[in-house]
Amino acid sequence: MNDGHSITRRTWLPLLCAPALSAAIAWPEEFRRQTARYLESHRRPEGGYGWSSEVVAHITPTFGVVGSYHALGLDAPDAARTAAFARDVYPVPELRRKDRPLWRLDFEQVQTLLWLGRPIDSFRPLASTWTRPAEFTKRYEFDANPVFQHQAMAVRIRRLLGLSPSDADGPWRDYFQARRRQDGAFNTTPASDGSPGHIMNTLWGLQAAECLALDLSPAPKLSEWVRACQLPSGGFTYAPNATLGAVDDLAYTWCALHILHRLGAQPAQAARCASWIESLYTPEGGFQDRPGGEPNPLATYYALDSLLLLNHTPKPSPRPAPRAPRTAIPSGYELFSMQVEAPGNGSPRDAVLLAQSLGIHLWTAKNPPLGWIEEAQSVADAARVPVRFAIGNEEYGTYFSVSGLGCYSHLVDLVAPFHPSANQSASPGPRADGRPGFVTPPGAMPKLNHPYRWEEFRDTRIAPLRKAGGRMVWQFLENEELTRALLDDAVQHGSYSAIATFHFGNENFLHSQPYLHRWLGRLPFVGLQDAHGQESWWWGNQLGGFTTLFAAKDASWPSWLEALDRNLVMAVRHDAITGWKTHYAGGSPQLRDFVRQREPRWRWWDASGAQARRPAASLVLLRPGMRYETGVPTEGIALRLRLWQENTGQGLPREPRAELVRLRVDGREVTPQLIETRNDRYYLLNAPDQPGAHRAEAEIRILASGAITTASAQWTGPK
Asked: Strands 525-528 and 507-508: what pairing?
């Protein structure tokens, strides 16, 4: 290993930024033109580049596009605007640069600027604060291991800025040294646990060690370990003899070739590797990650750089790799709306009103108490609202592990049908909010805060869930290496059936974990409400902001499962977070056309782009004994009025969007009591239960427009 102190900055730039370009090849001119056309098809108005399935630019495809131009020996068009985007637009909230920082995104900004010949000094103040590995909460990773890739990227940025190596790098050196295996490989967990290495983490670890001038002990068998990752196809997987999602992939292949190049070695089957890479080239001019996917800019960069490392001039492949399947929409199918992990507590009547107003056909309730789903369905059926309530639980405190890659929570999110006759019961232990256990389908994990092995989790949780008609949804995981193994396994064996994208708050998992785009066309993408709070009414921003759409013959649970299996599912977001513009996630071109053609039937915004279907008020008649309703009287009746307000990501009311003008009961104006707490805000009117037919009507003013609307309730008193 070279002594980093003796390497000049001029030497370090090619080492860190564009290794292997010393073996430049003569790209066929038509190949370069076709690839450049493909790359430019990702240009977005912001100045950067976006994924083919997204309308906005993002740093990762921008990195891929600019890196591809660099590999092709071409100048990137409109470099000044691209550089400004790369420097100034961070794809997730700024807080994430301190809380579980995603330093891979920062590295892509810096690397893109260097490829464009722009300065990177503006990153120095921030990078100077990265003096040790980031803290990682045990709430997400059982042993608080930070994500290895992000730590390595932080060190690479520091070296490019001249901040490392230095005498203050001790915590960084200790971290990487502890994660180096005897064979020279690296991985997320400390090597003391006896776990194997990973091809991607090995490259990141070697790069970080060079940046830190870390004195590594000899590992003469490392090149043999890397060669053993090559599969018969010619591509590489992530570890020798791996079995869990151990597919050939361009990212693994790119990492393997870089490691071998550093070691002065070649793949055992170099020609076969080059042929495999060639087979991933598509008619658009881009490369897939592996057979059965869609081309994307990052895969294209990996492919071009890998061909440079192999010193191989590409030629047309006689048998291009198969593409992601594109299912035609059967005749007679329609579009339906599904909300995953919508609220599962509070007022069932408010939930039914929201479902009716927003056109929600399937409402999977998050962690509902026993009886809530039955009550909500009973209310919906009585009002003839076409919504079916089901289970959409998140099992907090369940962890599972994969050797060497960590032990994570927030990966047990499920949807399942609800059958009262199936004797579904309460989960073990209290809910996160201290309430009794929630209703759950078969196979719930009996222990919380316990690190299950993946195999145990798969066999004892996912298998019985699928047998009962449920499916598992991938929520989020910032560890790319573990994500790849588990989601590739899901494609093969159906462990996970969908990937979450849009999320409550200012979050889109496709932006914070951009590698998820790799499964476009392979797994369905859904929106994840992940509801918080005590009342569905105070989740209106999210329910009226993004949803999951599926094409099916009807809105039944079997039809939903069929749509999942056939990937006739996609997510849509249109709210203040997107600037009242429509963002899609997932969906084949055919499904997207199907959705666009039917937009007037399902969209929740008006011609100006603003929310148009969200109800301005909920007026509910309350009687003694009503379960799950706030303000229920002990005798007589009560009227409860909730008004439209903004809400937080924790389901709390914020600034008003409507006001009460007057409330009348049987034509007589009355004055209700305003009740305000941290968690709720409503008007309440208590009254005796009088004989005869009655009607209450509330006049509501929409604050933004001044328009008047009404909410009403009718009832019959005792005879």
From this structure: unpaired
Asked if 499 and 519 touch (Cβ cutoff 8 Å), the reply is yes
Supply the pLDDT for residue 528: 98
Q: Is the pTM of this model over 0.85?
A: yes
* Cβ-defined contacts of 553-556 (< 8 Å, 24+): 553/330, 553/332, 553/333, 553/334, 554/334, 554/336, 555/336, 555/361, 555/362, 555/386, 555/388, 556/388
- β pairing state of 406-408 and 398-402: antiparallel
Distance CA 91, CA 504 (A): 16
- Delimit the CATH 3.20.20.140 region(s) of the chain: 334-397+411-446+466-602
Cis before 165 (ω within 30) = yes
**Listed residue (569, 591, 595) closest to 582, CA to CA:** 595
Evaluate whether 257 touches 267 at the Cβ level (below 8 Å): yes
Q: What is the DSSP letter of 429?
A: S
CA distance linking residue 572 with residue 335, whole number of Å:
13
- Quote the distance between the C-alpha of residue 651 and its chain's center: 20
Contacts of 625 (CB under 8 A, 6+ apart): 632
Q: Which parts of the chain sit beneath pLDDT 50?
A: 1-23, 423, 426-436
Half-sphere exposure of 643 (CA within 13 A, CB side): 27
CB 611 within 8 A of CB 704: no
State how far the Cα of 275 lies from the Cα of 271, in Å rounded to an integer.
6
| Under 8 Å between Cβ of 507 and 651 | no
- In 10 A of CB 560, how many CB atoms? 27
Residue corresponding to tokens 């996160």: 432
pLDDT in tens, 338-366: 999 999 999 999 999 999 999 999 999 99
Q: Is the dihedral of CA 265, 270, 273, 279 positive or negative?
A: positive
CA distance 616 to 605: 14
Domain with CATH 2.60.40 in the chain: 617-716
Instruction: Tell me how far apart the alpha carbons of residues 432 and 196 are, in angstroms, rounded to a whole number.
Output: 35
DSSP string of 360-412?
A: -SEEEESSPBTTHHHHHHHHHHHTT---EEEE--B-TTEEEEETTTEEE-S--
Q: Which CATH class is domain 334-397+411-446+466-602?
A: alpha beta
Are β-strands 525-528 and 498-503 bridged in parallel, bridged antiparallel, or unpaired?
parallel
What's the pLDDT at 9? 33
Numbers of helices and strands, H then E, in the chain: 23, 26
CATH number of 617-716: 2.60.40
pLDDT, tens digit, for every residue of 607-660?
Answer: 888 888 999 999 999 999 999 999 999 999 999 999 999 999 999 999 999 999
CA-CA-CA-CA dihedral for 66, 68, 74, 78, to nearest 10: -30
Q: What is the 3-state secondary structure (H, E, C) of 74-94?
A: CCCCCHHHHHHHHHHCCCCCH
The span from the CA of 112 to the CA of 67, in Å, is 7
Confidence (pLDDT) at 203 = 98
Can you spell out the DSSP letters for 323-373? PPP-PPPPTT-EEEEEEEEE--SS-HHHHHHHHHHHT-SEEEESSPBTTHH
At 434 the pLDDT is 39
Q: What is the pLDDT of residue 438?
A: 60
Name the phi and psi angles at 561, rounded to 5.
-65, -40
What the block records as the tokens of 266 is: 């070649």
Residues whose CB falls within 8 Å of the CB of residue 381, separated by 6 or more in sequence, listed in order: none
